[in-house]
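Fig. S4 source data, part A: sequence.
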Amino acid sequence: MQKELSYTIEEIAQLLKVSKLTIYDLVKKGELPVFRVGRQIRVGADDLDQYIQLQKTAPSQKIKAPAHVETTVPEFPSESIIISGQDIVLDLLGKHIEEISGLKTLRSYAGSLNSLLSMYQGKGDIVSLHLYDGDTGEYNLPYVKKILGSFPYIVINLLSRKAGFYVQKGNPKQLTDWKDLKQKQITLVNREIGSGARILLDEKLRIHQIPAKSIHGYSRIESSHISVASAVATGTADVGVGIEKAAKMVEVDFIPLTIERYDLVILKTPENARLIQAVKESLASAALQSEIHSLGDYDVSQMGKVLYETL
């Protein structure tokens, strides 16, 4: 059997120099055929080439999936939803949503702020957020209210978790507070712009009046909590900001500095009524709460609580 080359959604986004949400949107519209390997979505190289050629030769025509894949590609357009965020609990949530509603769940790993901005632009179905506002000390709602504006939406708590510093074993630099980042001998590893961890760091630097340019390594970017923790573990950085769970997966110490609230945002539209109900039922499920609690390092005491809802 000849081996067929295929790509992940992230790889295609990089090849075409667009966001992953743009690729997911093409999938949902049926313009880019896909297949599943377990829970992962992949696109065949031939199908990608054909999509590109069709865009070149007939940009005004609606692109349709090639006939040879129609019997094997899931029907995405009206029966799939996109959940943004990186935490593993979102995979568990997606599974329960599928069981309750029959909707297919796809994942986008974009950061909190970028996902919220995409929702404003009409992309994405469930956005997960952990955005700290330094002026109010509150998570998420200040950003949602400003960005979504007059959109109708609902904000529901998923969980709470600890965030803080990843440091090398034994904490040789003795980093215990945000103000310790003023030490000029510190080498930082950062997260990408728009991620919750990056916004938390930037807000704390602003509050403590620490210029970002004064911190060595501030411009070094990693795209996940695990990658940040790994950079600290290997000694290429002294400190990074992230959540407790990743520290236990990598050989680093964790210095807790805040409890962050991790919430879900969904637009309140007639089309989303079924989705909102499925999310509420999933979050109220003892089975899902038990699965998340068993992972450790998560507080599910407020899980499912509606924190804000427009009329």
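Fig. S4 source data, part B ends here. Residues 58-78 have pLDDT under 50 and may be disordered.
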